[in-house]
């Protein structure tokens, strides 16, 4: 596994200082400590010996550290008792010292009074004038001394009172922290025991052994299982809904020249011809060149020079606790979050980023077969997640009425427009027109649930794609995104769920399954599998790949019903031709890790442009300040914009109350460039583009735009 995956797949810890290190055979290592045992396997005997040596050195170091700690500190409870006794001893010492000072004060007052009486008597005696003046000066000094000593005693008394008051507060706070620590230790111990029992249950469960995986192979092919017979799930399977309708199938790669012979043992339920998989004329062949050749060809076209970098992300420290304690008891959507959690793009720009691999739709236009076209649409739907694998920062929440345009009509043949059409709940409408033969539109509402260890982000709303020449109308919905390690650990993102893409004209379907990450799974991480079938349910293509790297398509030449799984479901065996790459992720630009892991397209999304609407995200001041690295100023500006938006909302609410009292209808906020209509395909009420934006841009007439910045 990669280093990033190892960072979030730790299965627990073992105390090396008391652990026993043993070797079973030439490659296996056994680590045991009380009731916990780990079996590790190395690739070779040399590697095993290197691990044993490293573990022994680490064990010796752990023993030394334990001995040093035991010398420096005793048991926890006696330490706390000593703390208490020391505190009480200090207070007693202060009290006794104060009593001593009070006694001294009384003595000073007594002797001072006597001294003053004596001096007064001396003044009454007939002495030379010079002696009288000296006695008077001494008397004044004695008075000043008595006043000073009284002030000192009063200050000491105030200090003791303050110390006693605060000592009680400190004791209560210290006791509370001790109780919280003990409770946390008990919780962690309980979780560790549950984790250990789960591991033992998984190891002892039938079907987890290699002999019962249900995966077969042939001499001339490889076999892939989209859904294993075993339950390869980790402790977080409860977070994801069971996908009952997910297709269970096995694919076997066939030799085109001998596909009939290799499939002779299969009772063919459906059969295709390898000649249909024509390498010379098929649109798939152009996809084999993949995205790299595509980008090379783009570079040959005359186009506007776009920026290739943004200022590096500053390394600002963040006091998470100071933010969290101010969030207690508040609604999640109303908590003012600093820009430290953001990336310098708005949600509208992130939505536009789905178009990074728009060339897949340009190729889909050329497909004569609707099932072939479905393969490209499926690859496009998966490609939109490729930018999320490293992007753990949240985009800026758009202000109501905020817009974002991306005009690439001359360069790539499309122009895109987004508008924030609702604030509670937040909803954005998106419309894309391509002169190369397709139109895409959607309205997305984001719902999120915080579940302690992770945050689930559920995009609600359908995505529509229509091809102009054929009239094929595709509809699908996005899967759930999960951000793990919200509280502790390194943030990482996973995608899980199913996408069903339906062509409402031909009734073709594609079922894509995004497999959630599991430590115990033998599958590759971020795996996506699916089947493209026609209106009669006949399967034509198998889709496979990962949502962060590439998607491949394999043409089915024969299918049959295989064995029944342990869950009682019958698997389908698909014999396919060699897979062809439809989509491959572009490499990230140089220094991407210091530029929020932005792709080449993302780097250009917030680039300043002339003639855009005054509501465009590029003109948002807090976002621009953050991109420039001026985060403190960005936080101030962000708070100003949010307060301005709240004031507008309060004014609308007052207008609504006033209209209600007068018996009038109040429409509320009306989107500027979109209008609500009932979709003829899904029957849902969605925002669709009503036109006028690009005409207003040509005329530079933005008089209807609200003042939101």
From TrEMBL:
Domain PH as annotated: residue spans: 1-60
Region described as Disordered: spans on this chain: 65-87, 203-234, 255-278
Chain intervals with Polar residues compositional bias: 209-225
Localization per record: Membrane
Principal location: membrane
Membrane topology according to the record: Peripheral membrane protein
Gene Ontology, cellular component aspect: cytosol; perinuclear endoplasmic reticulum; plasma membrane
Biological process, per Gene Ontology: lipid transport
Keywords: Coiled coil, Lipid transport, Lipid-binding, Membrane, Phosphoprotein, Transport
Keyword Isomerase: no
GO MF assignments: cholesterol binding
Domain of life: Eukaryota
Chain segments annotated as coiled-coil in the UniProt record: 174-201
Family in the record: Belongs to the OSBP family.
Protein name, UniProt field: Oxysterol-binding protein
């Amino acid at each position: 596994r990669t280093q990033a995956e190892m960072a979030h797949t730790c299965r627990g810890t073992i105390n090396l200082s008391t652990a026993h290190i043993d070797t079973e055979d030439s490659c296996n290592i056994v680590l045991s400590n009380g009731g916990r045992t780990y079996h590790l396997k190395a690739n070779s005997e040399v590697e095993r010996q290197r691990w044993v040596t490293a573990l022994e050195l680490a064990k010796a170091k752990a023993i030394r550290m334990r001995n040093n700690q035991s010398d420096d500190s005793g048991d926890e409870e006696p330490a706390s008792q000593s703390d208490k006794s020391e505190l009480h001893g200090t207070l007693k010492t202060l009290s006794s010292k104060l009593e001593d000072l009070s006694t001294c004060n009384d003595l000073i007052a007594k002797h001072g009074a006597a001294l003053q009486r004596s001096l007064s008597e001396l003044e009454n005696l007939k002495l030379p004038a010079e002696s009288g003046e000296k006695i008077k000066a001494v008397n004044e000094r004695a008075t000043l001394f008595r006043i000073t000593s009284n002030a000192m005693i009063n200050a000491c008394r105030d200090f003791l009172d303050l110390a006693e008051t605060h000592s009680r507060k400190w004791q209560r706070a210290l006791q509370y922290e001790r109780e919280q620590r003990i409770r946390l230790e008990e919780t962690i111990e309980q979780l560790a025991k549950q984790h250990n029992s789960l591991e033992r249950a998984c190891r002892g469960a039938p079907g987890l052994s290699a002999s019962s995986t249900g995966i077969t192979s042939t001499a001339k092919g490889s076999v892939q299982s989209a859904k294993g017979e075993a339950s390869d799930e980790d402790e977080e399977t409860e977070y994801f809904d069971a996908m009952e309708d997910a297709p269970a199938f096995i694919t076997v790669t066939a030799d085109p020249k001998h596909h009939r012979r290799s499939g002779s043992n299969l009772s063919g339920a459906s059969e295709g011809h390898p000649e249909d998989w024509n390498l010379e004329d098929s649109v798939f062949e152009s996809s084999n060149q993949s995205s790299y050749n595509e980008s090379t060809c783009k570079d040959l076209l005359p186009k506007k020079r776009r920026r290739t970098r943004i200022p590096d992300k500053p390394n600002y420290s963040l006091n998470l606790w100071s933010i969290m304690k101010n969030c207690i008891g508040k609604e999640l959507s109303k908590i003012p979050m600093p820009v430290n959690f953001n990336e310098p793009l708005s949600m509208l720009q992130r939505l536009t980023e789905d178009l990074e691999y728009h060339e897949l739709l340009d190729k889909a236009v050329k497909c004569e077969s609707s099932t072939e076209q479905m393969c490209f649409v499926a690859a496009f739907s998966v490609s939109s997640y490729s930018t999320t694998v490293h992007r753990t920062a949240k985009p800026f929440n758009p202000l109501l009425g905020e817009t974002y345009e991306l005009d690439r009509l001359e360069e790539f043949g499309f122009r895109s427009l987004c508008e924030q059409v609702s604030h509670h709940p937040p909803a954005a409408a998106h419309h894309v027109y391509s002169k190369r033969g397709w139109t895409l539109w959607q309205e997305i509402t984001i719902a999120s649930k915080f579940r302690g260890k992770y945050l689930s982000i559920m995009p609600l709303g359908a995505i529509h794609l229509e091809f102009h020449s054929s009239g094929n109308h595709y509809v699908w919905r996005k899967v759930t995104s999960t951000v793990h390690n919200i509280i502790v650990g390194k943030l990482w993102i996973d995608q899980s769920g199913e996408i069903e893409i339906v062509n409402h004209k031909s009734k073709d379907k594609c079922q894509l399954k995004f497999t959630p990450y599991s430590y115990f799974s033998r599958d590759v991480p971020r795996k996506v599998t699916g089947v493209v079938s026609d209106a009669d349910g006949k399967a034509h293509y198998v889709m496979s790949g990962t949502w962060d790297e590439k998607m491949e398509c394999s043409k089915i030449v024969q299918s049959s019903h295989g064995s029944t799984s342990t869950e009682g479901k019958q698997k389908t065996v698909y014999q396919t031709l060699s897979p062809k790459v439809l989509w491959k992720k572009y490499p990230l630009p140089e220094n991407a890790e210091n530029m929020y892991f932005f792709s080449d397209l993302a780097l250009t999304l917030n680039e300043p442009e002339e003639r855009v609407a005054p509501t465009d995200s590029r003109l948002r001041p807090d976002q621009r300040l953050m991109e420039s690295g001026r985060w403190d100023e960005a936080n101030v500006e962000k708070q100003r914009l949010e307060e301005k938006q709240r004031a507008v909302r309060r004014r609308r609410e007052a207008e609504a109350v006033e209209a209600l009292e007068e018996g009038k209808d109040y429409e509320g906020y009306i989107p500027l460039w979109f209008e609500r209509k009932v979709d003829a395909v899904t029957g849902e009420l969605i925002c669709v583009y009503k036109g006028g934006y690009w005409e207003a841009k040509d005329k530079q007439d933005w008089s209807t735009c609200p003042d939101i910045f």
